[in-house]
Amino acid sequence: MTLDAPNPTGETLQKAAIRATDLCFAWSEDKEILHSCAVEVPEGEFWMLLGANGSGKSTLLRLLAGLLQPTGGEIQISSPVGFVFQNPDHQLVMPTVGADVAFGLVNEGLEIDEIRQRVEESLSAVSLGAFQRRPIYALSGGQKQRVAIAGAIARHCDVLLLDEPTALLDPDSQLELVAQVQALVKKRGITALWVTHRLEELEYCDGAFLLEAGKVVDRGDPERLKQRLMQTEEVED
Ligand SMILES: Nc1ncnc2c1ncn2[C@@H]1O[C@H](COP(=O)(O)OP(=O)(O)OP(=O)(O)O)[C@@H](O)[C@H]1O
């Protein structure tokens, strides 16, 4: 795990796919939610964003996705962004799996053969190759999240932003999804930033950021951050 560590010539060793500097956001003039946040995720790595309820995780992710405009700071992202919401029912719009993945591609005006090929390829990347004709309503929560991810892969989004994608899943599906995203990141060179407050998910990522009251207060080794959070929880108990 190297995060833009400077080498002796002053160049960076690994390019950041997601970089935000001095990022600020306020819903109203007297209510700043994010204060000078800096976030850098190296290309091809899987990072997580941790923090208590209300610390600003979703807001930060939405800023990175361009769904909200920052009140200050800069964002640089190296590729089109795929966003996965906490509740897949807020994201999947078509009646069947194949039609949903194809939806964004049709909007881009791609040729039908290209659409077919991308739908097939992206669904098999998330192990749903046999599910093209399956109605969305017949899927489990984890399968729906994988359809949302396939939609992003089909649109050639090499950056994935996932906002608590396991929040509505049972523990088995939760770990299955996080393992699958880890495998996708490693196999396809995708870069992912995943919001969670579930510490057991941390072992799948390359690094993590800790957000407290709108500030990034720590970053780096997930195991160290996990220990820090577990100690905080013990003190609070
Ligand atoms: N649309 C909105 N209008 C005004 N304030 C908002 C809005 N959405 C969120 N907030 C406030 O912004 C702050 C950060 O919220 P955010 O949802 O980013 O936190 P979070 O860390 O993702 O929390 P959680 O883990 O509960 O989802 C909170 O104080 C929240 O009440």
TrEMBL record:
GO cellular component labels: membrane
Residue ranges of the TM segments: none
A molecular function (GO) term: ATP binding
Location of the ABC transporter domain: 18-235
Domain of life, source organism: Bacteria
UniProt keyword list: ATP-binding, Nucleotide-binding, Transport
Protein name in the entry: Polyamine-transporting ATPase
